[in-house]
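ugh ok fine here u go
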Amino acid sequence: MKNFSTVSTRLALAALFSVAAAASAAPLTCEFRPDAPDQHVVVKGDTLWDISGAFLRQPWCWPTVWGMNRDEIANPHWIYPGQVIWFDRAAGRLRLGTQLSDGLNDPSTTQKLEPRVRTEGLGKDAVPSIPPGVIEPFLTQPLIIEDDELKGAPRIIATQEGRVFLGKGDKAYVRGDLKGNSSFQVFRPGAPLKDPVSKQVIGYEAFYLGTLKLQAEVKPGAGSAVHTFAVSTANQEMGKGDQLRAVPPTPMQNYAPHPPGQAVDARVVAVYGGVTHAGQNQVVSINRGKLDGLDIGSVLQLYHAGRTVSDSTGQKSWFGREQQVKLPDEEVGSLFIFRVFKHISYGLIMQVTAPVEVGDVAKSPE
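structure:
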């Protein structure tokens, strides 16, 4: 399977979002590729991951080789087309420059800069980090509903004129506590997600149906206990029994890769879309979340879990049974975490060398 850094130059998103490696995390060595170029002129369509992949064995290490501290990586910084990334081999660092002449191979012709910290927001021409087209649907739609979120969620109890399904503009009648919200997503819980290790249900992959807008809220003391909504969008058919969740605020789509602040040992719970194998740029869910030390931008290494085999060459037990031996886990790629729930996270598969399967291991970089 192709390497992410050679096929993803159109993928998007830039830099950083409330990210800092914990002080207690063990330092990691970011190794440069032996064939790393002396410099790279940034062009439209480049990504930070791709550029870094040309210089580094681990592309997600770019905040480290920029020499960024914890305060700096908590704020966005941008790199733009026309700038020059050059490899300071003596210092073992990447540096940013602005081209001053046509002498592309002469470091003396570049103005040497550091990545600038900016707080005014995302520049439209900024070099991106990971693909928005792949992950955007996962940023605002619920998609994963954890057990406690199902309890007491507002629900549609009746439809306009008794219709079986609702379309755009139709009225829906809802019961439940709106908690001061007026815009809601409508979802239908789907198949349960089971932890591959404990076999316990840890959540549900929800079917996103559309959105509702509040028209008339029940007033205290009113004879009716039903709120009136209108359908704003209808991606799929919705009707009685479907549940509501407040529309989350639009997230800042800025990400910086970093190792988790604490050791994480997770398993792939599901491949989005209901299939059993996933490849490059596909989304998977894992059985660890914010309560386990994951945050947005965490990078994990993916492994095929080693099989347990019988050792027919070794000494047998006194029952005549062959000894059972577990084979080593085999690394197959990287996982970039871009949305985190309490016990579950969504990750984008990067740099994959073999199909990722449900039950595969995802753990902190070594």
